[in-house]
Automatic annotation (TrEMBL):
Keywords: ATP-binding, DNA-binding, Helicase, Hydrolase, Isomerase, Nucleotide-binding. ATP binds at A32, G33, A34, G35, T36, G37, K38, T39. One of its GO terms (biological process) is recombinational repair. It comes from the Bacteria. SUPFAM superfamilies: P-loop containing nucleoside triphosphate hydrolases. It catalyses: Couples ATP hydrolysis with the unwinding of duplex DNA by translocating in the 3'-5' direction; ATP + H2O = ADP + phosphate + H(+). This is DNA 3'-5' helicase. Its EC number is 5.6.2.4. PANTHER family: ATP-DEPENDENT DNA HELICASE SRS2, UVRD / RECB / PCRA DNA HELICASE FAMILY MEMBER. GO terms for molecular function: 3'-5' DNA helicase activity; ATP binding; DNA binding; hydrolase activity. The keyword Hydrolase applies.
Amino acid sequence: AAPAEADLLIGLNAAQEEAVVLPLDAHAVILAGAGTGKTRVLTHRIAWAIEQGMDPASIVAVTFTNKAASEMRERLRALVGDAVAQNLRLGTFHSLGLKVLRRYGHILGFRNPERLSPMDQDESVALLRRVMKAYDAGIDLKIEKPRDHYGLIGHWKDKGLEPQQVRPQKEASRELTRHLYAAYEKEKFASQTVDFADLILLSNRLFRTREDIAKTFQKKLRMILVDEFQDTNPIQLEFIHHLSNTGKSVSTFVVGDDDQSIYGWRGADADIFQTFMNHHQPCELVRLEENYRCTSVVLDAANAVIQHNETRIGKNLWTQRQDVGPFGLSVYADGDREADAVAEQIGTALQQGASPKEIAILYRVNAMSRPLEKALIVRSIPYKVFGGLNFYQRREVKDAMAYLRLTADPRDDAAFMRAIAVPRRGIGAKTIEGWQTAARARGASVFDVVQGETKPAVAAFLHLLNDLRVAYRDAGLVGLAKACVFTTKLDEFYIETAKERGEECVENLRELISTAGVFHHRLRTGGIAQESIAHHPGDPLSEFITEAVMDSDAAVHLSKKAETVSLMTVHKAKGLEFPHVFVVGLEEGEFPKISPFRESNIEEERRLFYVAMTRSKYQLQMSYALSRWKFGREDTEMAGIDDAHSGEGGVSSRFLSEIPSHLFGDGIMVGDKKSLPSPVAINGRLRGSDAGDWW
Ligand code: ATP
Ligand code: MG
């Protein structure tokens, strides 16, 4: 049975209710800070519209992730019942675009549109690589990297530029990209596939060229609602405009927070609210200021930080909550001790009755999950890397591990096959298969089989394996780990991706080197149980590999538990909330992230930090480390090796100094010892002997 009207309005404050019950044909912007109930208002607005007689099939709601969509559907089930919630069109921009293409793709020339599913980024790059190989004028693939070109093509696509709309480029390489873009589109169409950007781009093209189809949608739809509107980019906006007849016949209801705009690099623009209002006159503007998520100390801290941004619309968040949760900042000697302490605190929270799913650890970059995973594994605390893979399952980490395994045992066929394929060295799949067959026939390893090969590429590979063995002999485990990343040119291979993923891969590879550094250190200081060394006396490499395999297994096992602690990047945490939140790695350079690959946008980094802090419903623990084992550089044996990043770590994030120090009450924690006058530690650079005094 449909609930009474009043039920839908229970649990809404006056401003929220005002937004929910706006006339059903009104356009509205709900512009409000974190935790003020925007998503709740959006959900209740849908229920309200249905309650007022609107057909659920005429409502489209766009969320930022598929998970958010399914959560919203759950909420609505409770509010309006299963049968009704079933008919709603609820999903991400991409999932809605895919629906449009599957339905009408034949008009664009797709033969089996109902079976369309988008290629991921790797598949798209592979397609571009094929295009480049076949390119008439001839391209030297050693100089012109497919991923670079793909990056620029993606950028154009995000801006909604089709090949013929891109202007001739002054720079030769970019001009080549422009031509490749056209060829890529042609080849993609010939193979009857689409990439991710196409889901929206092609839908837009369809709507543009076939007004009748756009009209069909517009006639059916009455209301479009968008959550996290601040991160909508221009082509997504165009998509909404097509569906809504630019708001002439369909009501548009968007909710968002300019302070949480964190996808500037994807073309989203914080002015979007103003632009939207200009296009949808008359438009209601509702502001929500009461926050229901955070404790007052968290809110005070978050408000203080975000006030440092100059480009913001400006809001004032407050809460009625009187309860206080644990709130603190801690400094640790290194990233592993930080991870250990966080896991320890989580263990305590669990013992006190918290459920793992109420706990999240947030970090700026994915590579930071590694020490945290280790600390959780050691304590058998179930966890899951949300929206990503655990450290040892990441492709680039597996690649580097293959080289480590080959160094330990060249007759490890699985490792051989993986390593010879990345980075690509022009050895065809057929050739490699041939070796495998020969090896099987002779009962030998692939390594044995290729000894007789004369191909230069194979000789070079065998030479490389030898270099790795020499690196291990001369420079130990850490030296070998470095060689497995740099001498193999895995780093260059992944850096080719230039954009987001490439950078992340290299960070993970570096983290693997750090892992080797930590391992080596533990080995020397007796941190590793003697009986485990006894298996392989004097062979840290086998020990290291064994431990990696065991950790990887444990990670998979732990992630399958019904309830898990969530580890995730701040980007992934948007819109979510947890009673216990740990934000780690708050060092200058890490958060704000200073990247060698792209200009950093401090205001956007600050918005990210604001998102991170405001995920907390009760406890918020922030921390940073004085060193991060980058490149395993703390290993004294390696100290002489030059290291571009040796300055990293140790300086607390500028954002921490933006939090009024009185909020920290007793001061900050240094290690597990208490209390240091906070300004010193927060602003100071604590290194070497300075740091020594405190632990
Ligand atoms: P974000 O900006 O992070 O996406 P939001 O504005 O969408 O946040 P919600 O997630 O909708 O905020 O709400 C935050 C929390 O406050 C939720 O747990 C929600 O259930 C609760 N909440 C919202 N409004 C009220 C209310 N009027 N009374 C009690 N709790 C509320
Ligand atoms: Mg929300």
